[in-house]
Write a structure and sequence with these properties.
- The protein has 213 residues and is of the alpha/beta class.
- The protein contains 11 helices and 5 strands.
- Helices cover 50% and strands 13% of the residues.
- The protein has a 5-stranded mixed β-sheet, sandwiched between helices.
- Helix 5 links the parallel strand 1 and strand 2.
- It is globular, with a radius of gyration of 17 Å.
C-alpha cells in the first residue's frame, strides 16, 4: 500500500481510501515520517492536486495536534493536499468541537485512523505544569492537569525538559482515552475495527515521532 501511495500523481481518491485498513493507514503515517527525516520527499504535481481537490476529499487519516509552529503536520508526514484531516489546538486536548470534527472525519468522510500528536518542548504542557491561569487558557490548560498530576507522581515536581516531555506523552495517552470515553461514535468505530486511535510525540529537534499504540 505504501508503494501505491508513493506512486500517486494527484490526490487520494475514494477507492484508495476505502481500500485501506486502519493498520495500513498508520503505516502510511509512519512511512511519511521516514521519508521526511531521510529527505525522500514524495512530491506530487500541485496543479493535479488542485484539480482533484475540486472533486472532493478522501483523507486517509486525521491528526489532532498542538498548534506549535515547530510541528508542521503535513511536513512531518510528507503529506500532500487531501491526504490528512488536521485539527490543531494548544496542548492537543480533546475539546467537544474537536471530538465532533474527528467524528466527521471518520464516520462521514472515511478516514481510517486518528493520531493524537503531542511534541517535545510543549509550551501548553509547561504552562499547565506551572499552574498558569489566564483568560481562556485557564480552561484549556485544565484539560492537561490530569497528565501533569500523574507525571508529577511518577517523576517529581521539577520542571526540567525530561519531565515536561514525559508529561507530553502522558497527555497524549489521556487525550486518546478521552476520545474513546467522550465519543460513542469513535469508540464504536474502533471496537468494530473500522478505525484505529493511536498516539505519538514529535521531537521538534530531530523530526522523529515516538509512537504510542
Amino acid at each position: 500500500m505504501q508503494e501505491k501511495y508513493r506512486a500517486l500523481d494527484g490526490a487520494i481518491g475514494a477507492d484508495f481510501q476505502q481500500s485501506l485498513t486502519p493498520s495500513e493507514a498508520i503505516g502510511l503515517l509512519k512511512d511519511g515520517v521516514r521519508r521526511s527525516t531521510s529527505n525522500e520527499i514524495n512530491g506530487r504535481h500541485r496543479a493535479r492536486l488542485m484539480e482533484d481537490a475540486a472533486e472532493g476529499q478522501h483523507p486517509y487519516a486525521a491528526v489532532l495536534s498542538c498548534i506549535d509552529s515547530r510541528a508542521p503536520v503535513e511536513q512531518i508526514f510528507d503529506a500532500a493536499s487531501g491526504d490528512l484531516f488536521v485539527a490543531r489546538v494548544a496542548g492537543n486536548v480533546a475539546s467537544p468541537d474537536l471530538i465532533a470534527s474527528l467524528e466527521y472525519a471518520t464516520k462521514y468522510a472515511g478516514s481510517k485512523a486518528i493520531l493524537v500528536l503531542g511534541h517535545t518542548r510543549c509550551g501548553a504542557v509547561k504552562g499547565a505544569w506551572a499552574g498558569l491561569q489566564d483568560g481562556h487558557l485557564t480552561e484549556l490548560l485544565g484539560r492537561i492537569q490530569p497528565a501533569v498530576e500523574a507525571t508529577k507522581l511518577e517523576v517529581g515536581e521539577e520542571d526540567n525538559l525530561s519531565n515536561l516531555d514525559r508529561c507530553s506523552a502522558v497527555n497524549v495517552k489521556g487525550t486518546m482515552n478521552e476520545l474513546r470515553d467522550q465519543s460513542a461514535i469513535l469508540a464504536g468505530l474502533e471496537a468494530e475495527g473500522k478505525i484505529a486511535i493511536v498516539g505519538g510525540v514529535y521531537n521538534v529537534a530531530t523530526g522523529e515521532v515516538e509512537w504510542i499504540d
